[in-house]
Every structure is written in structure tokens, then in C-alpha cells.
């Protein structure tokens, strides 16, 4: 059964992709949770329009971010996460969470695709986070503190 994914789903695909999945999986898991909808011809046409709009918005955000690249490099963002006594975080911080932290703390909307994190951050301390916006590279500092 062909479905249109409404959210990113691990091992299946990304938002707005058309995927072929088992009928039972679609009807019993994806549809009830609002993760996908059936891929009819009208839904696929809507999807193309949505994709174009989404891509245009992303391009505008990246262009704006590129203009403010100097501000991003001087950015120091602090966050508190739960950690043990040795300074290891109970849950790693991935690129998606970093994008949300940046948006919350500094009001900058950095697309997750621009954050080039090799692996999740798993320790408290100061971390340099690399960004790649179009062909330009930058990095900012993320300070992770232990939650008391």
C-alpha cells in the first residue's frame, strides 16, 4: 500500500515521502497515529505543492542564516541536562534536539540538516557544534551543564 509520510519515521522514510508499506502496518499503526495518509492521486498532487513550499521556506531560512553567519559563530548556548556524577548524560543530545535548543534560547531557526554532528553529545562540558549552510561552514559553542 502506498502512503505519504506526515512525519519522519525511523527505517521507513522522511516527511512528505511516498513509501510502499504493508497494508496492516499502515492501517493499524501509521494511520491511527497520524504518521501517514493514503497516497491517492489528489494527495500526491497536494504533496508536490507542499514539497515546493517547504523547499522554498528552507531556502529562505538558509539564506537568512547565511547573512547572519558571523552572529552564529559568536553564539554560546547553555543547556541543562540530566547527568550522573561522572558527567555522562543519561540521554545523548542529537542534531534535532540541538536545533530545538537553539530555537528556544536564541530565536534562530537553524535547519537540522545544517547541523553536522558526528555523534550525539553524551557528556557535560563545552562542545563546538559544526554547521554547514550551503557551502559555508561555521561553528558555535554549546555548553552542557548537569541538571541539579
From TrEMBL:
GN (gene name): rplI
- Specify the Ribosomal protein L9 domain's residue ranges: 1-47
GO biological-process terms attached to the record:
translation
Q: Which UniProt keywords apply?
A: Ribonucleoprotein, Ribosomal protein, RNA-binding, rRNA-binding
Name the InterPro entries on file: Ribosomal_bL9, Ribosomal_bL9/RNase_H1_N, Ribosomal_bL9_bac/chp, Ribosomal_bL9_C, Ribosomal_bL9_C_sf, Ribosomal_bL9_N, Ribosomal_bL9_N_sf
Which is a Gene Ontology cellular component entry for this protein? ribosome
Member of which family? Belongs to the bacterial ribosomal protein bL9 family.
Quote the protein name from its UniProt record: Large ribosomal subunit protein bL9
Gene3D superfamilies to which the protein is assigned, alphabetical: Ribosomal protein L9, C-terminal domain (3.10.430.100), Ribosomal protein L9, N-terminal domain (3.40.5.10)
Q: Which organism is it from?
A: Candidatus Zambryskibacteria bacterium RIFCSPLOWO2_01_FULL_45_21
Q: Name one GO molecular function term.
A: rRNA binding
The organism's superkingdom is given as: Bacteria
Q: What does this protein do?
A: Binds to the 23S rRNA.
Q: Where is the Large ribosomal subunit protein bL9 C-terminal domain?
A: 74-145
Amino acid at each position: 500500500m502506498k502512503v505519504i509520510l506526515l512525519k519522519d519515521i525511523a527505517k521507513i522514510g522522511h516527511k512528505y515521502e511516498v513509501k510502499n508499506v504493508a497494508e496492516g502496518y499502515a492501517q493499524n499503526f501509521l494511520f491511527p497515529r497520524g504518521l501517514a495518509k493514503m497516497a491517492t492521486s489528489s494527495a500526491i498532487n497536494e504533496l508536490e505543492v507542499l514539497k515546493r513550499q517547504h523547499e522554498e521556506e528552507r531556502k529562505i531560512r538558509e539564506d537568512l542564516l547565511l547573512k547572519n553567519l558571523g552572529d552564529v559563530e559568536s553564539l554560546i548556548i547553555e543547556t541543562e541536562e540530566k547527568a550522573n556524577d561522572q558527567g555522562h548524560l543519561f540521554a545523548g543530545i542529537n542534531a534535532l534536539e540541538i536545533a530545538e535548543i537553539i530555537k528556544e534560547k536564541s530565536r534562530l531557526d537553524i535547519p537540522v540538516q545544517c547541523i553536522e554532528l558526528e555523534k550525539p553529545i553524551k557528556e557535560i562540558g563545552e562542545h563546538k557544534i559544526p554547521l554547514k549552510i550551503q557551502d559555508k561552514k561555521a561553528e558555535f559553542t554549546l555548553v552542557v551543564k548537569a541538571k541539579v
